[in-house]
Specification:
By secondary structure, the chain is an all-alpha fold. 75% of the residues lie in helices and 0% in strands. It has one domain (3-404). The radius of gyration is 21 Å and the shape is globular.
Length: 405
């Protein structure tokens, strides 16, 4: 293989965001959001790790302080909510860019490119897990979803491959429970362009603001109803999480406005990003009624996005850290492989360190578990996910060439 092709593929400049820096509001690519995605995926990994430490160590042995720490930190859903918001921002930017260039927004072409990046790595994880379980008859210990419906593992695999497991069976995917997130993600990608395109074509900023706020209020109300009264499949569908996507989309809409920048300058002395992130994590556990908790989470995410997108804040600079952005770029691979690794590693560590205090065991599990997850995830990224990223970029180029022709 030609050396330049190797450098183009594996070099650090091959992936946008690996060379991090803060950008102004005129640029489309925002490395800060890659860093924020890194924070989100680390929150997911830490949450799942602590959940497993608790299960295998034994909740009945914990004191009140240890129980409180788990309630705050063992909350992977906080990271998922933040990832949903970033996806909403990304899609809104994409729709706006196509409209400004007078391009027709090709929903099918866009979805093909996204599926080309998302589906093959996910399918590889599902199929590998399926084959491993069938060959070894391995049954993961102390899991809540492995023995759920449907009884047939093959049927569960088929539904997962089609992103329909939660909607059809009202259960998380048996082979990969975090697959519920990908199912909601795909549902959003299917319906959001149909909603965002007419909104992006509106000329009046005031009208856009009113419609955006009204849409956020309506979607929040629907999410509350779905979360409280819906089936499990609805509770983990795009209906329940659409407000988080929408906050990201509205951040993309308002980012370039002078009022948005003025707000950031006004709040420059306030650690807005850190306060928002802390609040979001604290609200990750179901402390109270959803009617106040969901709006509070949305406000926390809005604060995070404001600090990340506007003004020269310390939080924004921290999100531009090169190492953090690299984790963010590989976040999909980390999401795909982390649970399988933790499900095997954590029980071994806990069993060997059972005589240690709980916090010491959690620290050891965190150090070893997260280290292994990051190492193996980056291998998975470059070997499995990255080829499909490159292929989707080539596909994007072919579509652009076809339109210009």
């Amino acid at each position: 293989m030609h050396p330049k092709r190797v450098a183009d593929y594996y070099g650090i400049d091959a992936v946008p965001g690996f060379v991090a820096r803060m950008v102004n509001s005129a640029h489309r690519h925002v490395p800060e959001l890659a860093g924020l995605r890194g924070i989100a995926i680390l929150t997911v990994v830490m949450g799942h790790l602590l959940q497993r430490v608790e299960r295998f160590y034994g909740r009945e042995t914990l004191n009140q302080i240890e129980t409180f720490i788990l309630a705050v930190l063992a909350t992977p859903f906080s990271g998922c909510r933040l990832l949903f918001c970033i996806t909403g921002y990304t899609l809104a930017v994409h729709v706006s860019k196509n409209i400004q260039r007078n391009n027709s927004f090709l929903d099918i072409s866009f979805l093909k490119k996204r599926l080309l990046r998302l589906w093959p790595p996910y399918a590889i994880i599902l199929l590998s897990t399926f084959i491993f379980i069938k060959m070894t008859e391995y049954e993961p210990e102390r899991t809540y979803h492995f023995h759920a419906a449907p009884e047939s593992m093959t049927l569960s695999l088929s539904a997962s491959l089609l992103y329909l497991h939660a909607l059809v069976f009202n259960t998380f995917p048996r082979l990969f429970p975090p697959g519920w997130y990908l199912e909601a993600h795909i549902q959003f990608l299917l319906i959001a362009p149909l909603l965002f395109k007419p909104y992006a074509k509106l000329k009046s900023p005031e009208l856009k603001f009113k419609i955006g706020m009204a849409a956020l209020a309506v979607s929040t109300l629907l999410a509350m109803i779905a979360s409280k009264y819906g089936t499990r499949g609805i509770q983990y569908s795009v209906v329940s999480f659409f407000p988080y996507f929408l906050v990201g989309a509205l951040a993309a809409e308002f980012r370039a406005r002078a009022s948005y920048q003025h707000l950031a300058r006004t709040l420059e002395r306030v650690p807005l990003g850190l306060l928002g992130l802390t609040t979001l994590i604290l609200l990750g556990a179901p402390w109270g009624a959803i009617w106040w908790q969901l709006p509070a989470q949305l406000l926390a995410i809005a604060a995070i996005m404001t600090a990340c997108l506007a003004g020269p804040s310390r939080f924004r600079a921290a999100m531009s850290d090169r190492h953090l952005t690299r984790i963010g770029i590989a976040s999909f691979s980390i999401y795909l492989v982390h649970l399988q690794i933790l499900q095997i590693v954590v029980p071994i560590i806990v069993e060997r360190c059972r005589d240690y205090p709980f916090l010491a065991v959690a620290l050891i599990c965190g150090t070893v578990g997260i280290g292994l997850v990051l190492v193996l995830s980056f291998v998975f990224y470059w070997v499995v996910e990255r080829p499909f990223v490159a292929l989707s970029l080539q596909l994007k180029g072919s579509f652009s060439a076809a339109r210009s022709a």
